[in-house]
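[step 3/7] fold_predict: job queued, chain A
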Amino acid sequence: MGFSTHKGTLRGLHLQEAPALEAKLVRCTRGAIFDVVLDLRSDSPSCGLWFGAELSADNGRMLYVPERCAHGYQTLEDNVEMFYMASEVYTPNAVRGVRYDDPRFGIHWPLPAVNVSEQDRNWALVGR
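[step 4/7] structure written:
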């Protein structure tokens, strides 16, 4: 579960690598988020492509994040709560990330990023 106080907060993009590969099912339970899945599966025809959708408490939509795909979201309102189910327990040594603003992927976030964690600001740029 995650809670963000400020509109424009950006989290991600995160994934877990083997031996702790993780799939997620994400839902916004209060407010609204723009949720993003980035395909990093080298054997996938959509490798390097992303998909984004608005998830909100009102629309009840959920988004599935397959193993080896990175996940991130941006809050579209203040006081947002999101919930996710994961197929694997959190394993700090398996966590990897992709910068939310990596030019290689060109993700179009709907708002300027106002709150980004130090970890998420410091993932290496793959696109350079």
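[step 5/7] annotate
The first helix runs from residue 118 to 121.
The first strand starts at residue 2 and ends at 4.
exit 0
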